[in-house]
Structure formats: structure tokens, C-alpha cells
Specification:
This protein is α+β, with helices and mostly antiparallel strands and 141 residues long. It is 16% helix and 47% strand. The protein has a 5-stranded mixed barrel with strand order 1-3-4-6-5. α1 (60-69) runs antiparallel to α2. The radius of gyration is 17 Å and the shape is globular.
């Protein structure tokens, strides 16, 4: 039986600068969210704009690139796999869930950056190693 494909690809703008952590192991992780806009017409024919937010996590060299080049308002195409993490809050014993895109490729879509900066970041992304495995259940970011 063939495996199903777990790939997400989307475009959007960063809502704020990435939050970057340097773990004790030396691994770098960056978390950010992107806003993707959509619109539709309601029953009255009025256009309704809707924004969907997607959480993104980048590991290793991709996290370092995010730290250096991604800024609030940057327009990106991001690609990766969908992942849902669970953990239990130690105080309330409540189970929490987080669904995110684990980044393994990106493209700058805005023209604000110089061609050299875009080429440098995209070349680094293209040659980067695969992201580190996602944090296991029970760990929070």
C-alpha cells in the first residue's frame, strides 16, 4: 500500500519577526506564523476578506536563515510537512495541541530584498541539511 503525501505549500506574510531559540544541544529552532489572505462573496454578493494564520517551525540551518533574513511583513512561499504536537500542561493536566508546518523549503516573494540577499538565502536553503526531527510529545517550545 502506498503512503499518503504529507506536503503543504502556501504563501503569506510574516506577522512578526521569527522567535529563535538556541537549544543546549546546539540546534537552532525558529518559530513564526504567516498570514494567508482569502476572499469570497457572501449570499448578499458582498466580498468578505478572511485571513488564515499558519504556525511554521524551522530547524537547523533553515532556522538560522529565518533568524537572519525573515522579518515582519516578509512575503514567502513556504513548503514542508504538517505536524501536530501534543503535550500536557503540568499544572492543569490539560492536553494541548499545536498544528504547524515544519519548514523544509522557502522562496522570498517580495521585491524589497536585494537580489544578492535573496540569492544568498535561497542558496543556503537549497544546500541546507534536512530539518532536525520535531520535538517529541511532552516538550513545549
Amino acid at each position: 500500500m502506498a503512503k499518503d503525501l504529507n506536503r503543504l505549500q502556501m504563501t503569506g506574510r510574516l506577522g512578526k519577526d521569527p522567535e529563535v531559540k538556541h537549544l543546549e544541544s546546539g540546534t537552532v529552532v525558529a518559530n513564526f506564523s504567516i498570514a494567508s489572505d482569502d476572499s469570497y462573496k457572501d449570499k448578499a454578493g458582498k466580498t468578505v476578506d478572511k485571513t488564515e494564520w499558519t504556525n511554521v517551525v524551522a530547524w537547523g540551518s533553515l532556522a538560522e536563515i529565518a533568524e537572519k533574513y525573515f522579518k515582519k511583513g516578509s512575503r514567502l512561499l513556504v513548503e514542508g510537512k504538517k505536524q501536530t504536537r501534543t503535550w500536557e500542561d503540568k499544572e492543569t493536566k490539560k492536553t494541548n495541541y499545536a498544528t504547524e508546518l515544519v519548514l523544509d523549503n522557502f522562496v522570498f516573494l517580495d521585491g524589497k530584498k536585494s537580489d544578492a540577499t535573496v540569492a544568498d538565502a535561497n542558496a543556503s536553503a537549497a544546500t541546507s541539511a534536512k530539518p532536525a526531527p520535531a520535538a517529541k510529545s511532552g516538550k513545549t517550545q
